[in-house]
């Protein structure tokens, strides 16, 4: 089962116009978006699909206030869809759609869809840095930052779910779909990586009461920490509300910056996540502020020391 | 002056003009004095209510808007924390759906003077016209 990761996340929102404004400002590109909603994509074509919550074409809502309606996973080939269908049709209904994709529910009732991935291959440089002792990554006269530098989400990185039963969730995704646990924050839950993706995680669970079941956050990979800082700074300057960050997580090593959203969950810019293979031995540590991040900063308005003596009369 | 009155600023601190907040509208002001959190002022059924902009889902409270002054849900029926879509009644501050179900926003007592200016007041129950 060569599952790559989420291609799309589908939301049923209560304000399509506000969500459209938000997703566009976040840096996603509207594709055939109307007042009814549509697709907002990152540079590789992954992204979000939104519709009004009363749109009958949406999968059913969760029995909570959460707006997530479906997670659409990309797989490598049609054979992988056949394998998933064969495994999961043993104990649940699996619906084969006209385009070959399949739909089903996980053991918590989250709606899933699997399709041959529609993501486009990205060929772009990572953020380049210069450091003593290592070959310069930027050529002479190649500058690192400029005011209008691009800082757009490259790909949908991961989704984090509030689930009432970690064991049930882990058994389903690892036992039935071939995900592996890369690390565990005890008291929250495990980080999961699917077979055909070497990112530290595309899925993470947080144990919560049943009435919170849903999406806690979703994240998009940026081209590096500088792009993350630039995109987040631009977002704050437009009035959007920071929730946590910028900082850098310990597990996964990814930089992070989380924001509130009108989609009822957090949106994260992330960058520079660890890669793993099957030789990795999962770590485990209790969830707390110390284990969650190596450092944490808070945005402040731009300022600079002017130098020289204080202005006349102000000592 | 009680803790309730000082949570979002000193009593007597000017917040806004009453006319700035239309029926069914919410806006954020501050933060005032040493508080890190803004004060949300909302008008519901004609009465003004003020709440600390701090969702009780987390012990430290977290800011609730998704954008400047965007404190309401799409249907404009509830104050909303746009972290996890927790819905709060505008006039009681009670969470009726979401992670902090049954918990309350912290009320900021306010007073409106003859000029129509809204101030943080010594604590008393309920919203003021």
UniProtKB/TrEMBL annotation, chain A:
<dbReference type="InterPro" id="IPR004360">
    <property type="entry name" value="Glyas_Fos-R_dOase_dom"/>
</dbReference>
<dbReference type="Pfam" id="PF00903">
    <property type="entry name" value="Glyoxalase"/>
</dbReference>
<keyword id="KW-0479">Metal-binding</keyword>
<protein>
    <submittedName>
        <fullName>VOC family protein</fullName>
    </submittedName>
</protein>
<feature type="domain" description="VOC">
    <location>
        <begin position="155"/>
        <end position="272"/>
    </location>
</feature>
<dbReference type="InterPro" id="IPR018146">
    <property type="entry name" value="Glyoxalase_1_CS"/>
</dbReference>
<dbReference type="InterPro" id="IPR029068">
    <property type="entry name" value="Glyas_Bleomycin-R_OHBP_Dase"/>
</dbReference>
<dbReference type="InterPro" id="IPR037523">
    <property type="entry name" value="VOC_core"/>
</dbReference>
UniProtKB/TrEMBL annotation, chain B:
<keyword id="KW-0411">Iron-sulfur</keyword>
<dbReference type="Pfam" id="PF00355">
    <property type="entry name" value="Rieske"/>
</dbReference>
<dbReference type="InterPro" id="IPR017941">
    <property type="entry name" value="Rieske_2Fe-2S"/>
</dbReference>
<keyword id="KW-0001">2Fe-2S</keyword>
<dbReference type="InterPro" id="IPR036922">
    <property type="entry name" value="Rieske_2Fe-2S_sf"/>
</dbReference>
<protein>
    <submittedName>
        <fullName>Rieske 2Fe-2S domain-containing protein</fullName>
    </submittedName>
</protein>
<feature type="domain" description="Rieske">
    <location>
        <begin position="13"/>
        <end position="119"/>
    </location>
</feature>
<keyword id="KW-0408">Iron</keyword>
<keyword id="KW-0479">Metal-binding</keyword>
